[in-house]
Amino acid sequence: MNYQKLDAALATALNDVQDSEEPSLGVFIHTELILDSAATAVLESLGVSDVTSGKDIFTATLSPNALSQLSEQPWVKYLKRSQQLGLVNKRMGIGSLGV
Predict the structure, then answer these.
(1) Sign of the four-CA dihedral 57, 22, 5, 80
(2) What does the pLDDT look like over 32-75, one tens digit per residue?
(3) 3-state secondary structure at position 86
(4) pLDDT at position 92, please?
(5) Shortest CA distance to 82 belongs to which of 18, 19, 25, 8?
(6) Is pLDDT above 60 for 3?
(7) CB atoms inside a 10 Å sphere around CB 5
(8) Which of 13, 80, 83, 84 has the fewest CB atoms within 10 Å, counting from its CB?
């Protein structure tokens, strides 16, 4: 695993995963802009959808083993944790915004 390509949130989340084969981590995959057919095949084999030329950011839910494999690829710039965002009014009551 090339930890230099992982953001802090993703590196921390890896410590909490129990099954290294289970796709459980949502990530953004930042790559070189021009991917060759071998790179495209690697992404598709890991379950990344909509792999087309001209794109350099992909999203996927991957296992720690898949992340390790991707982090070692020279055409991967970095991997960033994707987290589900919640609405502000769900965390705070609407009346407590003071508007």
Answers:
(1) positive
(2) 987 888 999 999 999 888 888 788 999 999 999 999 999 999 99
(3) coil
(4) 55
(5) 25
(6) yes
(7) 20
(8) 84
Q: Token digits for 48?
A: 């990344």
Asked if residue 28 lies in contact with residue 57, where contact means CB atoms within 8 angstroms, the answer is: yes
CA 84 to chain centre: 12
Say if CB 75 and CB 38 are below 8 A apart.
no
Residues 13, 14, 20: CA angle, nearest 5 degrees:
135
Most distant CA pair in the chain: distance in Å? Answer: 54
Task: Determine how many CB atoms are found less than 10 A away from the CB of residue 77.
Answer: 15
Q: Do residues 79 and 27 lie in contact, with contact meaning Cβ atoms separated by under 8 Å?
A: yes
Query: Nearest-CA neighbor of 46 among 59, 34, 36?
Result: 59
